[in-house]
Each structure stands twice: as C-alpha cells, then as structure tokens.
Automatic annotation (TrEMBL):
Transmembrane segments: none annotated. It comes from the Bacteria. Residues 361-388 form a coiled coil. This is Sigma 54-interacting transcriptional regulator. It comes from Bizionia sediminis. Keywords: ATP-binding, Coiled coil, DNA-binding, Nucleotide-binding, Transcription, Transcription regulation. PANTHER family: PTS-DEPENDENT DIHYDROXYACETONE KINASE OPERON REGULATORY PROTEIN-RELATED, TRANSCRIPTIONAL REGULATORY PROTEIN. PROSITE patterns: PAS, SIGMA54_INTERACT_1, SIGMA54_INTERACT_2, SIGMA54_INTERACT_3, SIGMA54_INTERACT_4. Gene3D superfamilies: 1.10.8.60, Homeodomain-like, P-loop containing nucleotide triphosphate hydrolases, PAS domain.
Length: 701
C-alpha cells in the first residue's frame, strides 16, 4: 500500500472528523466521517468553503484565524457546524497549520461533543437550576459559544443577538454594561456586576466577565449570566426594612446572650450620643451600668421562656442624661445563637402626660368630693318630707297648715281653704278627703269659675229632662255623685248669689230640689270649699251671702303663699326636678347652689304652680345632671318688666278692656262686651268688678 493511501485509510478509520481548508476558506479534503456527519459526498464537499460549514465565520474572522494559526501553528476551540440538512451540531476543534507541497493549509480535527449528551444534559440541568448561563467569546475569530440556559434566559435563539455588543440593549444601564465589557476586553479586568433588565417586571442579572489572556492580550472572554432577581428582591426588601428600622424613632438593640451589641438602629447612635465605632464594640454592661451579669442572665432566661417581655426602664445617654423608656424584648434564634432584639421607646412625653393626668384627676377628685359635700348639704337642707299626699313641706309655717289638715280631715266638718292662686289649695282638699273616712268614696271637684253661671245649678244639682231649653235628658248633679263622699267647690267666690241659698240648704239640711223635678234629694256630702278672693269683702259688696260664708268657714285653713315659706322652695324645686326629669327622659339629679339661691331670691307671684312650671321649662331647656341657673330663671325685676309673666288675671283684664274699647264701653245687650265674649252680662260685670274695671271708665281710645 502506498504511503498516501495508508494516510487516507488512517484518516478514514480514526474516530475523528477531519477536513482541510485553504487560506481562502475552500475545503480541499474531508474524511469519510466528516462527509457522513455534514451529509455531503466527498465530491460535493470539495466545492464548499468553511463559511458553508461554520456560519459564524466571516471572511475577516477566517483571515484572523488563519493568521493566528500560521503564527502559532495550532489552536483548539469549540464551534458549531452546519449539516447539509441545515441542522447544527457542536464540535471541539483541534486546528493544525501545515504546508503540503508548498501549499498552506489548515487541518481541522473535530470531536463531536454534542454526542456526549450525558454531560451535556447534566450541565444544562445544573445551569437551569442555578439560573446560570455561560458563553465564551473568541476575540480573534469572533466565534461565540453559548449555553442553552444562557439563550433561554434572554429568550434568544441565535448567536448574533447574543454578542455583548447586542446584549447591552437588554439592560437599563447600557453604558455600564458597555464599559464593563470594554474594560474586560481591553484592559483584561474581570467584571462582576448585577444589571437590571429593561423588562416589566424587571429582572436582575449578575454578569460575570472573565478575560482569558494569551501573553498580555485578551483573546477570549468567558461570560456568565445569572438570574439573581429573587435574591436581589429579598436584599432590597431587607434593605428597605433596615431603612425603616434605621429611620424609626424607636431604638432597636440586638444583643447576644453574652451581652454583646450585635446590631442597632441609627436612632441608637443618635439618641444615646455614642459613635458607631463605640457601639460596634459595646456590650449591654457598658451601655447600661445598671445591668448586672446575673440580671442579664435572668432576663435572657425569661425572654427565652416567654418569647417576648415588656417592661419600663430608665436609659442613660453618653452624657449621663437619663430618660424613661418602654422596652419590648423579643427572643430570636439566629445562626445558632440566642438573640435579644429589644425595641425601646422613649416615654418621657407619656410620663409627663401621665403626671398631668394624675394631677388633673386629683383635682377632679377634690372637686368631686367638694361637690358631693355640697350636695350632701343641699340634700340635708332640702330634705324635708314628701308625705303620702305628695305634699312637699319643710317649713314650720306650712307644717302648721298640714297639722290643721291632719286634724280636721277625719271629721265631716266643712272646710274653707283660702289663699292665693297656685298655693296648693286643691292639693289640700285632696289630702283632706284622702285622710277622711270617706276616702273610698269619690272626691268630686267643681270649679265654679270655669262654669257658665247658668249651668252651675244644673251641674251641681242635676236636672230633669225638659227642665230648661237644652235639657234634652236627665242629668245627675255633682252633689248626687258625691253622696257619701266629698265635694270640692273651687273658686266658691264665683258662685252666683242666687244659687248660694240652695248651696246653704244642702250644707245645713243635706237636701236640695232637683231642677225641673218634683223630688227633694237627700245627700250626705262633705263640703270643702276654696277661694282666692276675700269673701268678707264680697259680703260687704253684697255678692256673697254672709250666712253661707259662716257655714263654710267652720274650719278655715289659710294656705300660705310660697314667698311666705321660702324654706320649702329648694325641696319643692328638687321634687319637681325629679318629676319632670323622669317625664322628659333627662338625667337631672340636683340643683346647683346658684340655682337654689336664684329661686330663693324670687317672689313667685304665681306660687307653687309657677315654680312647677318654671322647673318643667328648665328641664326641657337644659341638660346634664345638675340644673344650673340659666336664662329661664326669673328675677323680681324682669317679673315686673316682662309681659311674658303677666298673671292670668292681668291677661283677662287686658282682654276685657280691649273689647270694651271696641264696644264703646257697652257691657250688656246687643253689641255689648258680654255678647262678644259669649258670656252672661252679670258674670262679666262680676268679673269686671273683681278685676277692678269700673263701669264709668271711658273706653273710647
Ligand atoms: N306642698 C306642695 N307639694 C307639692 N306640690 C304642690 C304643693 N303645693 C302645690 N303643689 C302643686 O302646685 C300646683 C298648684 O297647686 P293647686 O292646683 O293645688 O293650687 P291652687 O291653690 O288650688 O290653685 P288655684 O287657686 O289656681 O286653683 C299643683 O300641681 C300642685 O300639685
């Protein structure tokens, strides 16, 4: 066998792919294995160039590669070859420069590394788990090898786009990336920087560039991209929290079990006044001389047991100033050691507030006690008796009145109660009845002033059907109703004179004649009469029968006006306050001293009724538990000036005068005041007399 044939045979049996190429890149030979791998026949192959096989190679890079090989004779690298079908595969190339018959040539011997799939897949897996992609850039021929993970990390599929000059567009800091690459390639400086991508949400890619030097020149760059988004975000979060802690007003101390200060917030240095270099070396025992080793051990044991302990403490600054703090000491176990993380809050302001609050509370307590004492005194002052008949009394004078009531009540004696309007005459009448043997029978009340004169008779004595026009049915009189009971004739002074005889007969004989009937009716009635008029004067005037007066005045009781028994005012006011407060759903409990003084200073022309109305109004107007003096409280001055406080009689007087002015002084007859007022002329005359309106008064103008 010829030597040449042996060589050729050898080239075909060796487990390597081999081809020869000329300076122009033309392929002049390919062994059987190479032809089989790329899928060309030997005859087809010799028509191809290196650019058909390795698509990343350009004429310029081939020339550089050729020159390098010519100089260095050999080189090894990885490359990607393209088959006739268009598929790519990776190879490890050992290139050797040689000349044959003066012809210069490159012999490339290739080992298919894509077949070592086990290692390849292992590397791929490791890369994808670690999120690490690698690449290698040959600066001489510009060839680039990129791992699968590196491609998929950026979603790129072709090498051109992976070149660092293109990759920079993926990062926000394009200039930083470009500079880093230039520094590595030109100055041989390695790079390890995290770049943020432009995507949303962005990722953080750790970029490592390692220059491979040949002599003093960088001929290759090995690059690593690592997706460190998660770590970076965690770090950012940690930094954020560290920032929060540093900027918090609270002081954060992290101590080891031995008492060494491991970490602290900025506020610690700022507040305590220590330098950071001092704090970095400090222990709890230096920072707080009050803490002993025993105490610290016990404290640590407690936080280990309870996980968190809260306490108040006094901290000392570097300059010796002391201030109160609130400490929450938390137990943590970190990197194999026990940690005390204490959050400390300055409570100076709170303590000052507490002190002020304490002082305020003390003052309130003092005022409360004083008020209670006052109230106690007031209660004592007004604590009189509210007897079974709801008659409030404290004054001795009124006690005497009540003693009279008590005395006469059980008898059948006729009682005449006199006194100003609103003094409680009706109340006394009720008390008389309730304390008599007749209490289980009715107490019939008749107000003679409110009844039209012509109706009083039938009201008192009843009538038979047809007794007078309008008597459409029989009517039982009040005397009949009060049989076995009591009749209370209020405003007895208003009783028409012609009826007084009939009344006298009932009083004397216990009988009367029915109006329009034939029968004489016998009744057993106790009579209690009341008047605010001076009946003696009326007798003199001839408008009240003297005999009736004596018959009524068997047992006179004079009801004292309120201004004559002022001691009763506080008690009465309290009684009405409670009554109307409950009624109005308010919470009044007491009257202020000023209110009581105001009430005592007032004369109460309207007597107890006026006081009652006043308190009722005040309860509506005011709020609280104590009734304070307000605009509702009258004075004797405004009583005179204020027309709002005109008495009922004054209003009646004004009204009658107004009408008389209108009728030119005419009282009775057509167009007279009695007709306008729809009342009996005699009644009006009586009223006028009572109110001091003289007949001869000129009413014109
Ligand atoms: N001692 C008292 N204790 C409690 N309430 C009282 C007392 N005296 C009077 N009152 C109350 O004052 C109001 C007026 O009383 P009363 O109607 O008995 O007076 P009066 O003298 O009959 O008035 P008038 O002459 O105008 O009919 C009533 O609501 C009554 O309950």
């Amino acid at each position: 066998m010829e030597i040449g044939l042996v060589k050729e045979w050898l080239l075909d049996v060796l487990p390597y792919e081999v081809f020869w190429a000329t300076e122009s890149g033309k392929l002049v030979y390919g062994n059987l294995k190479f032809c089989e791998r790329v899928g060309y026949k030997s005859s087809e192959l010799t028509k191809l160039t290196i650019f058909d096989i390795n698509t990343t190679v350009t004429p310029e890079s081939w020339q550089m590669h050729w020159d390098g090989l010519k100089k260095n004779k050999q080189d090894s690298f990885q490359a990607i070859h393209k088959k006739k079908t268009g598929a790519f595969y990776e190879v490890e190339v050992f290139a050797q420069f040689f000349s044959n018959n003066r012809k210069e040539m490159v012999c490339a011997i290739m080992n298919d590394i894509s077949s070592s799939s086990f290692y390849k897949s292992l590397i791929n897996n490791v890369e994808s788990i670690a999120k690490v992609g690698g690449w290698k850039l040959n600066l001489q021929d510009g060839s680039l090898i990129v791992t699968k993970e590196a491609f998929s990390m950026f979603g790129i599929h072709n090498k051109e786009a992976f070149h660092p000059s293109k990759m920079l567009q993926y990062f926000k800091d394009e200039a930083g990336f470009r500079n880093g690459f230039i520094q590595t390639t030109r100055k041989g400086l390695p790079l390890d920087v995290v770049f943020e991508t432009k995507e949303t949400p962005s990722r953080f890619i750790r970029t490592i560039l390692k220059p491979i030097l040949k002599g003093d020149k960088v001929f290759e760059v090995i690059g690593v991209y690592q997706d460190v988004t998660e770590q970076t975000k965690k770090e950012t979060k940690l930094n954020f929290f560290k920032n929060v802690i540093d900027n918090a007003e609270d002081l954060v101390f992290v101590y080891s079990r031995s008492g060494k200060l491991l970490e602290y917030s900025n506020s610690v240095a700022n507040t305590l006044g220590y330098s950071k270099s001092k704090l970095n070396q400090a222990t709890i025992f230096e920072l707080d001389t009050g803490v002993t080793k025993e105490w610290w051990e016990a404290h640590f044991a407690e936080i280990i047991e309870k996980r968190s302990v809260q306490m108040e403490w006094i901290l000392t600054k570097k300059d010796g100033t002391r201030f109160p703090v609130d400490i929450v000491a938390n137990y943590m176990h970190y990197e194999g050691q026990d940690i005390n993380c204490a959050v400390v809050r300055d409570i100076t302001k709170r303590k000052e507030r507490d002190l002020k609050l304490y002082q305020a509370l003390e003052e309130i307590k003092f005022l409360k006690n004083r008020l209670e004492d006052e109230n106690e005194y007031l209660k004592e002052e007004i604590s009189g008796k509210i007897n079974a008949n709801n008659i409030v009394c404290k004054s001795d004078v009124y006690e005497k009145v009540l003693a009279q009531v008590k005395l006469v009540a059980p008898t059948d004696t006729t009682v005449l109660i006199t006194g100003e309007s609103g003094t409680g005459k009706e109340l006394l009448a009720s008390a008389l009845h309730d304390n008599s043997l007749r209490k289980n029978r009715p107490l019939i009340k008749v107000n003679c002033a409110t009844l039209p004169k012509e109706l009083i008779e039938s009201e008192l004595f009843g009538h038979k059907k047809g007794a007078f026009t309008g008597a459409v049915a029989d009517k039982v009189g009040k005397f009949t109703l009060a049989d076995e009971g009591t009749i209370f004739l209020d405003e007895i002074g208003e009783m028409p004179i012609d009826l007084q005889a009939k009344l006298l007969r009932v009083l004397q004989e216990g009988e009367f004649d029915e109006l329009g009937g034939t029968k004489t009716i016998k009744v057993n009635v106790r009579v209690i009469a009341a008047t605010n008029r001076r009946l003696e004067d009326m007798i003199k005037e001839g408008s009240f029968r003297e005999d009736l007066y004596y018959r009524l005045n068997v047992f006179p009781i004079y009801n004292i006006p309120l201004r004559g028994r002022k001691e009763d005012i506080p008690l009465l006011a309290q009684f009405f306050l409670e009554k109307y407060s409950a009624k109005a759903g308010k919470s009044f409990k007491r009257l202020s001293k000023k209110t009581i003084n105001g009430l005592l200073a007032y004369d109460f022309p309207g007597n107890i009724r006026e006081l009652e109305n006043l308190i009722e109004r005040a309860v509506i107007l005011e709020n609280g538990t104590t009734l304070h003096a307000g605009s509702w409280l009258p004075t004797n001055n405004n009583m005179v000036n204020n027309t709002n406080f005109l008495t009922f009689e004054a209003v009646q007087r004004q009204h009658i005068i107004k009408i008389l002015q209108h009728t030119n002084g005419k009282v009775s007859g057509r167009g007279g005041a009695a007709e306008v007022l729809q009342m009996n002329a005699k009644t009006l005359f009586a009223k006028m007399k009572k109110l001091g309106i003289e007949k001869h008064t000129t009413f014109t103008g």
